[in-house]
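Subgroup meeting minutes
Present: P.N., E.W., G.H.
Scribe: E.W.

1. P.N. recapped why we're keeping a running log of single-chain structure predictions: easier to compare across weeks, and new members can see raw inputs and outputs side by side.
2. G.H. added today's entry (534 aa).
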Amino acid sequence: MADRKIWFITRPERDPKFHRDALLALAEATDGFQVKWSGNRAVHQKYEEALNARGIKREHISNDGSGGRTWAAMLKTFAYVYTDDDGYLRLTKVGQKVLDKEKVHDNVTKQILTLQIPNAYFLESGFRPPFESGFRIRPARFLIKLTNQACLDYFVTKEEITFFALTAKTDNELSVVTDKIRAFRNASPAERELMKQSIAEEYDHRERSDRAARDYEVAHGDVAHTFMLICEYTGLVEYIRGEALRINPSDSKQVSDLMEVFDQRYPFNTRYLISLQRMAENNGLDVDSYKASAYGNVKPATNRGKTENKVRAMLAEYPDIGALTRDEIKAILLNELPEKDAEKYTNEVTQDVSHALNQDFVETYLHEPDNRAFEDKTGEIFKAIGFDVEMRPKPNADVETEIEILLKYGDRECGIIDAKNYKNKFALSASLASHMASEYIPNYDGYDGRKVMFFGYVTAADWSGERNLTKISQLAARTIRGREIKGIMLSARVLLGFLDYCMDNNLSREQRISKFLRAVRNEAYSTLGEFLRN
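Output recorded in log:
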């Protein structure tokens, strides 16, 4: 089956007024989320029964629990819950707040306006067919902004949404879609049919025929209807049932101002590149968990000019801009900007800035082609976690062997990290294990008066050879007696996810380092969930 080219939303219930009822029924069916969900058809059917009892689902229980899974998928879509590594459904902060009846309308509205493609649920292996690559859009925000334009007379019809808005892949296509709708309105009836037929053939893989446009509209009209309903729930647009979205021109500025606030507070979330759990947890923050932008008052992507783009690109090398001092930020900007511009943008960046994961860093780090830059960015993550980081330190002995990253902590302790930017798989072979045990560890033991207490590998992609971590410890014990030096291997995504987790949960520097060190037990971690269980 071909990948999706058109917006989609799971819609067993189209009206967001009933999201809380669906959550209450799910809590009941899973005994307060204590019963395993994945593969448990009995609890899926029990969820259907709980929905029926609340009167929000038609009285039919599927034989395999598929109805329950569809309703759970809707709740995952809006990040009220997510599935953890063990197959249990976990409430996000916003899910808990809605369940507890706290600011329900505000929280549901926030979830609607931060809904994006892709999100954690749309990237689950069970979601089929997947969306095409290249999607980067917030559908509800897109529709509200589309409607809120004088050139469209502050309305968009269901037909126009179905054929033009649903095909947009990015937020930046607003003007393109607007132009298409204006051309459609000015076209003759025959020209309109040809335009619709062309869209059906291009986006829905339909054969050229007189029925193509009609079949496309039947297939996707209900998706348009659902998005129109959820937009109306926000109170920012009016939905004339089955016809159109509209905004009173007198409300236009208020709507624009609120959209700008949301664009500033909630930029496009790239945490799906780290892990689906972190994506769901962060998308699932409630309205009171808002943190200021990592970029302070620098405008978001859709509103910024060329210089602001350059500022963001220069700061994309740092995972936690809030951890940088004013002087450090200015020094970074002075590398490419004149004094006056550097001063101006330093002021903007440092105003209302918070400790929040830099979304631009996520993309540049996880797609970094240059090995040395990958090492440097890995070092920046460890620095943001709380370690005192030294890059490529010269070992005590007069040897050529040089580790990429040395982490200082405590009074006299340190760890050494080898960053591996292998795009397919890093294999920790016996020879590499021997090199770590016989070269790196003894050569850096005593560096700056510190004892090497652990070693580690950070990999850009997958890894193998976990068992050699224990062999390194055993070999190192022959040289350094009386001290057990353990290792860790983790992917760049897990390391980045751990930093993000620390930021979201306001962990102190000491708590972050302690939690990381607890995971150093000659184990390798491919998911954040595995790492956090320590």
